[in-house]
Amino acid sequence: MSHEILVAGETLIDFLPERPGPISSVDGFERRPGGAPANVAVALARLECVPLFWSRVGDDPFGDYLLETLAEYGVPGRFLETDPSAKTSLAFVTHDESGDRSFSFYRDDTADTRMETGRIDDSVLAGLEWVHAGGVALSSGRSREATLDLLERAAARGCTVSFDPNARPELWPDEATFREVVRDALASVDVLKATREELEALGFGGESTEAVARDALAAGPHTVLATRGGDGSIAVADDDAPWSEAVAEHPGYEADVVDTTGAGDAFVAGTIAAMRDGQDLEATLAFANAVGAAATTAPGAMTALPNREAVREISRR
User: Where are the bilayer-spanning segments (predicted)?
Assistant: First the structure.
């Protein structure tokens, strides 16, 4: 099978709480596979756009479980690495009553912080149309340099590059470092997906979400998609985008929300799938919103990702 998409970044274990509330009040957690880029890779596979996935796990039972799970979802193992001297990252998730979540990470020198520059060589990039990465890989360790290098070389080779800051403040030394490193990455990015809060943390401003997203175009992307949770999303594009200058907005879809973990990653996968299908900006936004909404209707991130039939069902609402 020919793979024209590469996703790069962390895969880890999410521990989901048995009930909503702060971590100090939760007695039990359930193990689930996670990590934003891993979720994007699986979501693309579920949408029949199977990608390559570059990631690194520890030589431990958690790493074994993640590799087995990715294989079950049909994600190729060509660039899935096992680090013999590091552990797999863990994240404990807590929910409020509306399903919104927060994270506590155990990620000190874990395997996904130790990805190595040059692992994806130019011969691999020559066969790709699209490369996607997220911000967590930029937060620490060798993975920062390796990810920045990948995005720069992918852009130079003519790949479409997408990026999700996936801001997790607890993983960064301070907001200034987050802003500096991510804005360096944006110079190589074509398609940026972010929340308004993330865009503002990166130093972009404006009175409306559209204005903030438009301000971000100057940093490098030709298209910025700003998600607004249950209120849908808005996208802006400049003259370098496939549709030329455009603005699109979508109110989102009704969904019986159980867990929002992974919804943004599903939205990213929907964006990539729709853009590669040649959809215009408005249709891309509608499809991405439907994928994201469908992903909130079951617990977990990877385990809740929808296939195209589930997306069609949400779209009919």
Answer: none
Structure tokens at 171: 């993983």
Separation CA 54–CA 199 (nearest Å): 26
Catalytic residue among 14, 164, 215, 265: 265
- Residue 268 is inside which H or E element, if any? helix 263-276
Residues shown for the chain? 317
Domain that includes residue 220, residue range = 5-315
> How many domains are there within the chain?
1
8 A C-beta contact, residue 196 and residue 210: no
Closest CA to 259 of 228, 210, 295, 227: 295
CATH code of residue 69? 3.40.1190.20
Angstrom distances, CA of residue 185 to CA of 5, 165, 167, 253, 272:
19, 10, 14, 31, 19
Threshold 0.85, pTM exceeds: yes
- Residue of 64, 101, 49 lying closest to 296 (CA atoms): 101
Rounded Cα distance, 301 and 259, in Å:
8
Q: Which residues make Cβ contacts (< 8 Å) with residue 159, sequence separation at least 6? A: 125, 128, 129, 130, 131
The kind and range of the H/E element at 141 are none
- DSSP result, 152-218: HHHHHTT-EEEEE----GGGSS-HHHHHHHHHHHHTT-SEEEEEHHHHHHTT---SSHHHHHHHHGG
Known catalytic residue at 265: yes
Span 232-250, pLDDT tens digits: 999 999 999 988 889 999 9
pLDDT, one tens digit per residue, over 249-274 is: 999 998 888 878 889 999 999 999 99
β pairing state of 223-227 and 191-195:
parallel
